[in-house]
Specification:
Elements (H helix, E strand, L loop, with lengths): L16 E4 L7 E4 L2 H5 L4 E8 L4 E8 L6 E6 L3 E8 L23 E6 L8 E6 L2 E3 L12 H11 L5 E6 L14 E10 L2 E2 L1 H10 L4 E3 L12 E3 L5 H4 L2 H4 L4 H16 L7 H4 L6 E6 L5 H14 L8 H5 L3 H10 L4 E5 L5 H14 L5 E9 L3 H9 L29 E10 H6 L6 E10 L12 H13 L7 E6 L5 H15 L5 E4 L1 H4 L6 H15 L1 E2 L15 E2 L5 E2 L6 E8 L3 E8 L3
Parallel strand pairs: 15-16, 15-17, 20-21, 20-25, 21-23
Antiparallel strand pairs: 1-6, 2-3, 2-6, 3-4, 4-5, 7-8, 7-10, 8-9, 11-12, 11-18, 11-19, 13-14, 17-18, 19-26, 22-24, 25-26
Length: about 600
């Protein structure tokens, strides 16, 4: 409980020297012993009163305030003066609070001030998750118990040197306008583990992966043929007439959107059947390319058959915004249909954008996430040429994607969709919806480092993490889990790990990475991983990271491997990270709802 000043400017200019007690006058800073002065222990002379020719009575008060005490001192006795003076009238009377019976609550504060130090700075401790922290964001892991605080106050009441003051958390009074709280009420997913959220969650919990070798002859000449491919043909699940007007990514998005819509308690058929104003509902999906195969196929038909061979649907089915527009069409959503394209951060950024659209009243409900279908020969060949893809073979059931692993050598390309239904809390409660968690905040940043490689310092990622915490009104001590981006590339995993260590500090926060299960779903990754993060909060269980049998020691994180782990209770925030080529960084913060 030191109280050293934060800057030298806070201190008085002192010039300690000895004088007789008879020479001091009110306003002098004195100490009755040289040892006390050496320890910055000073008292203000409030009164001097002659007692006899040999004795003088000094009334002293701690330099920054406290109780007055009288001392009978021989006139010729040497005392130490500071060489600086203080107006005695300006020194407050401070008393330590009795907190023996106080009912402490989170966000209460306790100030500890060493009142004899003229340059002292009050140390403020804040109670959070049942313990007291000097700094909620330093990540040191140092915390004090309620009994520690009671002991500080008890000892201070018998001391002239320290004052301990208790400030109970203020109770809310009146109405303060603020952005609306956003909650998650529905989930939908199409992934390499199967169709639906149930298949996704079972696969994650069981430590299975959905990565396989692509058997299409077009991939035969490629150096890498493994990918996270959805095992169900969405064109066979949707009505044929509907499916033929959508690209593969849009098909994924519609299936995930329908599942999320139903999971949120709305009726099949969309806004009309559910009695929801379609103009108050929006769609916001992330995509990098959407479905690259449509444009490639159109170009092939042009060369093989001429202009008449190119379908008129080629252009509308090529644009990355097709997934958002098809979800809008399918559920008759007229509020807005937006698309975010920011490389592999697209899905997470789309969720963040939707949060703000609801917060500030643009819509009341939004379907948000990402959809991607880029397991095509040209894309796979490009990634292989970059040496970005893993070359580990499929053997013994071990995933070739090995996030944070000591033998990681690249990512596995994948496809799918993940969609959340986000809703203004009052809207959800008014219709009696089940609430998974709060979509509490999000953060963005840009590395400004390289067109493909991450900034090895992780500074850009750290900025996005801190912004997400701040936007959620949270602190480092609130974080109980991180769903990492962790693509299993050597540089990317190290940069993310450095950022997490820098922000979280010494806190042992359980971290998991799902790309060993799924591969890298590109623009859909943020949506699917957000679905998993919501389920982690729902069930209180962190999925394991698969593929990585040995974690790289340089990572320095508490990576969950082997089996699921129970989610800690001493916090309420889960972070989901997504980062993309070109330095796009996006972080989503989800909060447990009591």
């Amino acid at each position: 409980m030191s109280n050293s000043p934060e800057t030298s400017e806070n201190r008085l200019a002192l010039n300690p020297h000895s004088v007789s007690a008879a020479e001091v006058i009110p306003g002098d800073l004195v100490d009755l012993s040289p040892e006390g002065a050496a320890q910055a222990c000073w008292y203000v002379v409030v009164h001097t009163l002659p007692e006899s020719p040999e004795w003088i009575r000094l009334t002293l008060q701690p330099a920054l305030g406290g109780r007055e005490r009288e001392h009978l001192v021989a006139r010729q006795a040497l005392v130490t003066v500071a060489g600086a003076r203080v107006d005695p009238v300006s020194v407050p009377v401070l008393e330590s609070d009795d907190v023996a019976e106080a009912q402490f609550r989170d966000w209460d504060r306790v100030g500890v001030l060493r009142v004899v130090d003229p340059g002292g700075v009050e140390e403020v401790y804040v109670r959070r998750w049942g313990v007291w922290h000097r700094n909620l964001d330093d990540g040191s892991g140092v915390a004090h118990s309620d009994e520690d605080v009671r002991a500080w106050a008890r000892d201070a009441r018998h001391s002239d040197e320290v004052v301990v003051r208790y400030r109970a958390r203020p109770r809310a009074e009146g109405f303060v306008p603020r952005p609306r709280r956003v909650v998650v009420t529905g989930l939908g997913a199409v992934t390499p583990l199967g169709l639906g959220v149930g298949e996704l969650w079972r696969g994650l919990m069981e430590g299975r992966h959905g990565i396989r070798e692509v058997d299409d002859p077009e991939f035969d000449a490629l150096p890498v043929r493994t990918a996270g491919v959805v095992p169900v043909d969405p064109g066979e699940v949707l009505p044929r007439a509907v499916a033929r007007r959508m690209n593969r990514a849009a098909q994924f998005a519609v299936l995930a959107g329908r599942e999320a819509w139903a999971d949120a308690g709305f009726q099949e058929g969309g806004t009309g059947a559910s009695g929801v104003d379609p103009s108050r509902v929006g769609v916001c999906l992330g995509a990098i390319l959407g479905d690259a195969s449509v444009l490639v196929g159109g170009d092939r038909k042009l060369r093989e058959r001429g202009a008449r061979g190119v379908s008129p649907l080629t252009t509308p089915m090529t644009v990355p915004s097709q997934a958002a527009s098809q979800v809008s069409l399918d559920l008759h959503i007229t509020g807005e249909a937006r698309t975010v394209t920011s490389a592999c951060a697209s899905g997470t950024e789309a969720i963040g954008e939707a949060i703000d659209r609801i917060r500030y009243g643009r819509v009341d409900v939004a379907l948000a996430g990402g959809a991607e279908a880029v397991v095509t020969p040209a894309i796979m060949a490009s990634f292989a040429a970059m040496r970005a893809l893993s070359t580990h073979p499929l053997e013994d059931g071990i995933s070739p994607s090995r996030p944070f692993g000591s033998d990681r050598d690249g990512f596995v390309n994948g496809e799918g969709a993940g969609v959340l239904v986000l809703e203004a809390e009052e809207h959800a409660r008014a219709r009696g919806a089940r609430i998974y968690c709060e979509a509490a905040g999000w953060g963005l940043s840009a590395d400004a480092h390289h067109m493909a490689a991450p900034d090895p310092s992780g500074s850009g990622v750290a900025l996005a993490l801190r912004r997400a915490l701040r936007d959620a009104g949270g602190h480092v001590v609130d974080v109980v889990h991180v769903n990492a981006h962790a693509t299993a590339t050597v540089e990317g995993d190290l940069a993310e790990a450095a950022a997490l260590r820098g922000v979280l500090g010494a806190r042992a926060v359980p971290v998991t990475a799902l790309k060993g299960h799924l591969g890298h779903l590109q623009g859909a990754a943020g949506g699917v991983e957000a679905v998993a993060a919501v389920l982690t909060l729902r069930d209180g269980v962190v999925p394991p990271t698969v593929g990585s049998t040995s974690i790289d020691r340089s990572i320095g994180l508490d990576v969950v491997t082997g089996a699921p782990r129970k989610l800690p209770h001493d916090g309420d925030l889960v972070l989901s990270n997504s980062f993309g080529f070109g330095g796009h960084n996006a972080v989503l913060a989800l909060r447990r709802v009591a």
